[in-house]
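Q: Could you fold this chain for me?
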Amino acid sequence: MGARVVVGVLHPGEMGAAVGACLTGCGHRVVWASAGRSTATSARAVAAGLSDVASLTEVVRQADVVFSVCPPQAAVGVARSVAGFRGVYVDANAVSPATTREIAQAVTTGGASYVDGGIIGPPPHTPGTTRLYLSGRQAAGVADLFTGSTLEAVIIGDEPGQASALKMAYAAWTKGTAALLLTIRALARAEGVEEALLSEWRLSQAALLDRSLGAADSATAKAWRWTSEMREIADSMAAHGLPRGFHEAAAAIYGRLPPPDTPAGTGDTLSHVIGVLLGEGVSGPGPGGADRGPAR
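A: Sure. Below is the predicted structure, expressed as structure tokens.
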């Protein structure tokens, strides 16, 4: 892969735009398609230095490498939308190894090479915060694209599915336990023992106080995409005979929360989330959760 390449980003949400900014900072030309996208997406793309080529067809025609950074439930559809692309396709989404294999089949059938990716950390605006784990035969070339950027690219194997498996294992703890904490707070409030629980936590589990606050803030903003991520983790567990129920329950919890543009009403975020979980506030899309497509 050449020192300077053309990279397509599908589609520049908060994370995708930040990844694109890392690539433009390294001297690569990064393209995206504005057709059907929102003004918010356009603003992110402009701020990241991305070049608008209007259509997905034109992204596929111009790009040497295509990155997919989208909600998990949209990952397969996005891969199928670039049928005929013959460069390197990097799927950097929170999906199970089984879904990774489905995506790999879709893109390689059309003539592309496939690299599996998993991003751990926030949008990479600051060095040392975020890693892009990669696996696949073309992983080294993809990693080279980020040399000197704020996103650390780490190769962990030659087989597609390894990067996604790492992402699933990592998020199983971080996001799975966040859902558990919110459920525990809701139970304690429903039983009238929340203050007693918090007093005990201050004595024996002080970190859980801040963690439950952080869980509420994060879930309020991202539950709409974490719902499907928990299902992908449940599938990953079940593929090896491990119980899927932990993360199916987490998906159900996140699925109850309203989308991030729903007014929270009065009170702090944590109280609002607990109220929603207990059926006292604005209800979310129901136990199954709402699946959104790519960031618009």
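A (continued): The chain has a mean pLDDT of 92.
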